[in-house]
Design goal:
4 strands; Nucleotidyltransferase, domain 5; two-stranded parallel ribbon; alpha+beta
Length: 124
Amino acid sequence: MLALVDALGNLVRFVLMPANRYDTVGVAPLIKGVEFGAMLADKAFDSNWIIDDMNARGAKIVISQRPQRLQPMAIDSEMYKWRHLIENYFQKLKEFKRIAMRSDKTDASYAAMICLCSAIINSR
């Protein structure tokens, strides 16, 4: 699962992914049509096409880079510290046993559970 959260750590959008796929495959549908000023992500999202898309949007790129990147970019280390909001969202979601164990049989029921749990998290 890939999730897009806002500056407060609230779920904006999510995409379910097959287990053995690159994370970058789900980024395009996740960010399509969404306006934002910065993208905070980990090394899994260090991809040239994502960086080019963010530059075209005028968004600030705060992505930890892989060591083999030929042209390293400078990142805002203070802004990168806010990435914990994304991790915190996933930890809050995993408080719900059904989500953590992935006990739903279909993608539709799993997505519905994520929406329900996100609504509960936002109401706290």
